[in-house]
Design goal:
The complex is a heterotetramer, with two copies of chain A (about 150 residues) and two copies of chain B (about 110 residues). Chain A is of the alpha+beta class and about 150 residues long. Chain A is built from three helices and six strands, in the order ββααββαββ. Chain A is globular. Chain B has about 110 residues and is α/β, with parallel strands linked by helices. In chain B, α1 packs parallel to α2. Classes of the chains: A alpha+beta (about 150), B alpha/beta (about 110). Chains A and B meet through α1, α2 and α3 of A and α2 and α3 of B. β2 of chain A pairs antiparallel with β2 of chain C. The structure holds adenosine-5'-diphosphate (2 copies). One adenosine-5'-diphosphate binds next to α2 and α3 of chain A.
């Protein structure tokens, strides 16, 4: 197995209340649909406005990666929203070439570059992030969660 | 879901005044980059971006600002960003870009 | 085959530009997510506000039917949004008991009842509607389209 | 995504004044029905619904209004609906309910 790069450890035993999944074309113009669907789910769960903004940015960054580095032009990628008792977990799954998370460097914030900020932003805004590489270089699954009622 | 760009050259201050309205994201960013480079081709000068109506920015939008600043810094011009919303501000903070751009907040 | 009840005939040869699909829990609290996702897609396509309202109502009615008459409590149902050149086609698919569309009576508008308005509203608001019964009483697929730039 | 219900008994007109704010749909309808029946239990009277802030209604919400009217008609009371938005109006029109309820539009 090529990669299974846990950034933060997450408990395995969680009660999933509801699952919503959204499958989107590999095209930038639909990332805003992911943001919209997410904000509906998150506001229904009772997240506050600031948390909803964080969630929107993090999900959009993962979608952008799925599109940029992920799959071919005519394939879709998926987003699963898992509504848990006290957190929202979001999985973004693409069928692209995959990557080794350990080899990605943290951005040097004193020397800004045009790229390389996406994963860093996701890790900063979400409470837990895990990245999985499917076997045989086939696709990425990024799992991120945000807890309800903190901040 | 769209980004409207209004531009005007302020002769007095000698800078481009840019108002952004909407969302600067992976979808709208190309149009924004093109427009800004056209303006700088026309006249290389400081740029002041008014973010009062900028609802959203993502890493690609931030990247475009970084690229813009790079081109301007070579010519000793500055990029000023004013009146940004809290969510945009937060992204500038966590990426350290608040220390790289000139941020002006009116209140 | 039990049913294949075409209300309006539809041409078979259409160029599908993009497909977005949304899978939702069988619960009333998520119907608003369907409306939200739909309104994002429809406004991106350029539908006007009145048409978007019509689409929202029609989709929500079909979702409500999928929940009320459709599947078991712990199953999901799906919505597929097909972005075509000059129309939006929406398919709502449940795994419920199905029904024979021909046997459903039009509501008598002079004698209002509490139920029985959903399909009638859908037909009134959309340009084309088809209802398919999967074989062996297993699920319903309702396909509805609205054309861009009329009204 | 929610439906707020404000009620007040107008002694002068002898009717319930109900303000609805939000969405009357499959999710919020049970709460609405319960509340309205409680009010009619408390005092059977005409009902005037102000729809200024009612953004959305679906067939289940319309069904609830039909049920309410049924109970009131038995007691010779009327259901008045005023100030509704165009999208709500359109649904009342296509279902013929505009001829069954009393619709008042201020402008
Ligand atoms: N879904 C993905 N599939 C393949 N590679 C990815 C994916 N997401 C991220 N990467 C890799 O990780 C790197 C860092 O990603 P990120 O921090 O989002 O910055 P950027 O996308 O701007 O390079 C990318 O350059 C890419 O090599
Ligand atoms: N998805 C579905 N699965 C099974 N039966 C359905 C479905 N949609 C509609 N029906 C049947 O068609 C009838 C009419 O539906 P509708 O016009 O929406 O009114 P209502 O749902 O209020 O009865 C329903 O009572 C039901 O028997």
């Amino acid at each position: 197995m090529k990669g299974n790069n846990t950034i933060y450890k997450e408990e395995n035993n969680v009660e999933v209340r509801d699952i919503i999944s959204l499958n989107l074309p590999n095209a930038p113009e639909y990332v805003s649909i992911a943001r919209l669907t997410l904000s509906g789910i998150a506001s229904r769960m009772g997240f506050n406005i600031e948390d909803i903004e964080d969630l929107k940015v993090a999900v959009a960054e993962a979608c952008t990666n799925a599109i940029k580095h992920g799959c071919g032009k005519d394939r879709n990628y998926s987003i699963e929203f898992l509504v848990l008792k006290d957190k929202l977990r979001i999985e973004i799954i693409d069928g692209g070439k995959g990557f080794d998370y350990k080899k990605v460097k943290e951005p040097d914030l004193t020397k800004p570059r045009e790229g390389g900020l996406g994963l860093y932003i996701i890790k900063t805004l979400m409470d837990e992030v895990q990245i999985f590489n499917n076997q045989k270089n086939c696709g990425t699954r990024i799992i991120m969660s945000k807890n309800l009622g903190e901040s | 879901m769209i980004l409207n760009i209004k531009d005007q050259f302020d002769e007095e201050k000698g800078r481009w005044l840019i108002e952004l309205e909407g969302e600067a994201d992976v979808y709208t960013v190309n149009n924004f980059k093109e427009r800004m480079h056209q303006l700088l081709d026309e006249k290389m000068a400081d740029v002041e971006i008014d973010g009062t109506s900028l609802q959203y920015i993502d890493s690609i939008g931030l990247g475009a600002l970084i690229g813009l600043r790079g081109r301007m810094a070579d010519q000793e011009k500055v990029l000023i960003i004013k009146n940004i919303q809290p969510n945009v501000r937060k992204l500038l903070n966590i990426t350290g870009l608040d220390k790289i751009f000139i941020i002006e907040q009116e209140d």
